[in-house]
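Q: Second attempt. The first request was missing the SMILES, so the protein and thiamine diphosphate are both included now.
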Amino acid sequence: MDDIKTEYLPNDYKSEVRPVWCPGCGDFSTLLGLTKALAMLGRDPKDIAVVSGIGCSSRIPAYTNCYGFHGLHGRALPIAAGLKVARPDLTVIVAGGDGDGYSIGGNHFLHACRRNVDMTYIVMDNQVYGMTKGQPSPTTDPEWGSKLAPEGTGVRTFSPLGVALAAGATFIGRSFSGDSNHTAKVLHDAILHPGFAFVEILSPCIIYRPEQREWKNMVHASEGHRTEDRAEAAERLISDDGFTTGVLFIYDFPSYSPDVGTATASMSDIEQEFAV
Ligand SMILES: Cc1ncc(C[n+]2csc(CCOP(=O)(O)OP(=O)(O)O)c2C)c(N)n1
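A: Got both inputs this time. The predicted holo structure:
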């Protein structure tokens, strides 16, 4: 009989696939933070599933040796919710970018927050559409000029943590990819949280937003304790500069876990049921 592994190292969660991310991309250290968090938790990779949408950041499932699902742009959350409801024994992690999660997937984000399925949602926010070559995203500052909007969009930014709080997320945090130990700690707590945990990771794209190299000098740890009080969390967000890191909010609320039973239909039964 094979020995059962009881201790894991971050590398135990990395696959053989070499990331195609650009040199200096923040997503490398987000991946490192995630694998460190998984090692701290010590779960077997076969008990973990990483689900994503489309984008540079959404390539992350291929770089772990957990189960993975590389879905459609903006559609990672409903896929992951279905998976968790059908297989509550799995640790489900969802990951993607700000375009994926806040723009095309924005509606799913709202409903994932209020539904409170037990999973962790990581958004690698680089305030730009990286994969499609640098268009503004919902978190891009209004003045940022790009080929698509040379004078800037003039549109105020989406507030991911505030939206998550208003929509009912029960764990809300932020981290900076450059500090993989901090990212690991926040993700560790998020994964252990029994409900929908949202973690925004500031993850620079130094190709389209080279000024984001400065983020390492701008991030600062939260001075406050993590609160269970929605009003207090909202108050802190009003004066937040977008660079405060740490866990902002944790709330104890039953997660959505309907009993869906065990599937008995064969693939050909399912094919027939859906045949047109
Ligand atoms: C339905 C659909 N619309 C548009 C696209 C094109 N597309 C692919 S990735 C992407 C944006 C990715 O940006 P983001 O989610 O911020 O991730 P990043 O690449 O910056 O990590 C877009 C618009 C697509 N694949 N599918």
